[in-house]
Structures are given as structure tokens and as C-alpha cells.
Design brief:
The protein has one domain: Zincin-like (2-Layer Sandwich), CATH 3.30.2010. Strand 4 (about 60) and strand 5 form a beta hairpin. By secondary structure, it is of the alpha+beta class. It has 3 helices and 7 strands. The relative contact order is 0.23. The strands form 2 sheets. Strands 3-1-2-7-6 form a 5-stranded mixed beta sheet. It has a two-stranded antiparallel sheet with strand order 4-5. It binds zinc ion (ZN). The site of zinc ion (ZN) has 5 residues, from helix 2 and helix 3.
């Protein structure tokens, strides 16, 4: 099974969400020392050019892909329709995958959730401006 998405420009991502995701990815990249991590934003599209085999897709409610890291990439994929809070959490999770692959050559889902939870507890309240949420 393959899921299809289309990449969308940064400028088309709702501002509060983009800022929350970018800040979370920046913090995670800095803490884990993986170098700058770009975000490629996407939206589900049955005709989209981004094809994700189900082995890389972590699917959440309603079979929506929140984010993705493809081993070897220097960027993470993030769904542009999540709202700021989910975007920040997904950013932490996906950067952890980048770190896992760089340090151990593998992807470990339980570790990525665990690390994102712990990092969220420390930094989460910095990731979005409650006055500007547009989720
Ligand atoms: Zn994952």
C-alpha cells in the first residue's frame, strides 16, 4: 500500500503552526546535535507526487499521516494540517528519527515517542503562542 501527498510551500502553511513546527524542529536538532533540519510540509492528495510506502508511514486517527522521516534525508516531512500543538510534537518525533538513523542506522518508534514526550515536558510550552493559534 502507498499513500500519496503533495509538498506545499512554507508560505502556505498557517503561520502559528509553521512557527511551532519550526521551533520544535530547531530545538530538537540543537539538543540532538544533528545539524539543521529542514521541514518539507505536505498535505494528503490522491494525485500527489510524494509516495509513502506504508512501512514508513505512521498513521494516526482517520489514517492521516502526521509526519515522516525517510532514512538518510536531512529533512523531515510534516503534515501542514495538524495545527501548532501536533506540529510541534511531530517535529520532535521526526527529528529524533533523524538522530536515530545518524547514530545507530535504525528507526525506533517507541524511543521516538518517548523522547518527544520527555522533550515536550521540558520545552513544549515554548512552541506556540496561545494568542496566535490557528489550529
Ligand atoms: Zn515515528
Amino acid at each position: 500500500m502507498t499513500y500519496r501527498y503533495r509538498e506545499i510551500p512554507d508560505a502556505d502553511v498557517p503561520t502559528a503552526m509553521r512557527r511551532a513546527g519550526e521551533l520544535a524542529v530547531h530545538v530538537a536538532s540543537t539538543v540532538l546535535n544533528v545539524g539543521r533540519t529542514r521541514i518539507a510540509w505536505f498535505l494528503p492528495d490522491p494525485h500527489g507526487r510524494v509516495q509513502v510506502p506504508s512501512c514508513y508511514a505512521t498513521l494516526y486517527d482517520d489514517h492521516v499521516l502526521w509526519g515522516m522521516y525517510r532514512p538518510g534525508d536531512e529533512h523531515v516531512w510534516m503534515n501542514a494540517g495538524l495545527g501548532p500543538i501536533k506540529a510541534a510534537f511531530v517535529g520532535l518525533h521526526e527529528v529524533r528519527h533523524r538522530w536515530q538513523f545518524a547514530t545507530a542506522g535504525l528507526i525506533d518508534e517507541p524511543d521516538a515517542y518517548d523522547w518527544a514526550d520527555k522533550t515536550w515536558a521540558t520545552y513544549g510550552h515554548h512552541f506556540w503562542d496561545t494568542k496566535g493559534t490557528d489550529q
